[in-house]
Structure formats: structure tokens, C-alpha cells
Amino acid sequence: xxxxAIADTATLLGRxxxxxxxxxxxxxxxxVVPIMLLLLFVYVLGGAITTGGGDHYVTYLLPGIxxxxxxxxxxxxxxxxxxxxxxxxxxxFQSMPIARSAVLWAHVLTSVIANLISVTVVILVAVAMGFRxxxxxxxxxxxxxxxxxxxxxxxxxxxxxxxxxxxxDGASAFSYPLIFLPFISSAFVPTASMPxxxxxxxxxxxxxxxxxxxxxxxxxxxxxDDVWIALVWCVGLLAVAYLVATHVYRTRIR
Length: 254
Known about the structure:
single chain, mainly alpha, 12 helices
């Protein structure tokens, strides 16, 4: 039964990836806004921002831009789910001998792959702008793992509005607060420079821990507790989002 579900997921994943390959504008659009923010903050505002470290500002900034890239990209998951739901694709699949879980997992894995490609594009642009790292293979694998886990958690969160929204705009609009969240974190400036209440919020929200963990891995500084806090946030969000999304799916698609 499990091998049957894996095979079905692989087949539907191939279908979704072919759609992405035929229409790469999804990946391009996802990367455009983060790249524009990267250019704006490094070349226009970077000279006025003090981070307290000796690294180039693009090195400080990149982890936050990576988070924004992922937050931007997951909106397309909700969008594609909404279109499939409205187009009757789900009902068509339900009439076929396909594992129920395969449909959702195919969309989720497509999102993870597409977002990792977008993140790669953003990192390459950052390298062209002066980003340098002495991170070894282990540190890079840790960064990829954190970003992939964060993407997986947010993608399952995106499944919920994709299945429940009444309009296309409603399906993708949920990502706007997620894109804004890095601006109230350590992504652009150290939290120590923020006023009291804002600093308290910034230091206790998930993006700060994720950004700090990735930044310290890139710069080969001690990661401290940030990496564990980041993992707890990601795993907790993933568990809650998965349970809610699968419940909504079973309710909507009978």
C-alpha cells in the first residue's frame, strides 16, 4: 500500500513538474521581488545600516532574502491547488485508483523543488553582488536542510487556503503577512537596534531564529541555540499545518 502511494505521488509529481518546466515564469516571478530587495538594500540602503560585524552587508542580508523568497513562492502552491480544485481535477483523480494522499504530496513536493530552485537563483545573484562564505559541506547541507524544512512547513500551510479559498486572490493573499514577517526580525538589521516592544517580538518569532541560524552557518560562527529553536519552530508549524490541511482535504474531497 505504501509503495503504491509513493508510485502515485511520483507520477503526479512528474505531472506538476512538467507544468513548471513549460511555464518557468513561476520560478522567475518568485525570484524577482527578493532580488529587487537585495539590490535595494545592498546598493541603496546598505551604506546607512550598521550590523556590527565585519562581513559585507549582502552576507548579512542574504538569509533574510532567502526566507522572503520561500514566503513568496508558496503562494503559487495555494494558487495551483485552487485551480485544480475548481477545475474538477481532484474529483477526476478520486475516480481513479490513486492514493488520496498522492495528490496533495505531489503539489507539496513540487513547491519544495520549485522554491529551492528560486533560492538557488537568488544566492547566485548574491554571489555576483559580493556574497562570500567559508561554509564547509556540512554547513551547506545544514542550510539546505533548514530551508527545505521551512519550505515544507510553509507549503503545507499554503495547502489550507488553497483548499478553502473562495477566489484566486484569496488563495494566494495569505502569503503577504509571511513576506512581511522578515522585516520585523534580524533579517535586515540587528534586533538590538529596535525599540523595546518591537525588539521583544522580533527576538521571539520564528524568522529571527531561522535567519540567525543560516547566517551563522554561512559565516562559520557558533550557531548556539538558534538552530534548535529554528528546527522546533519549523517542525511544530509543519505538524500543525499538515494535520489541519489533511483534515480540510478529507472534508472537502470525499
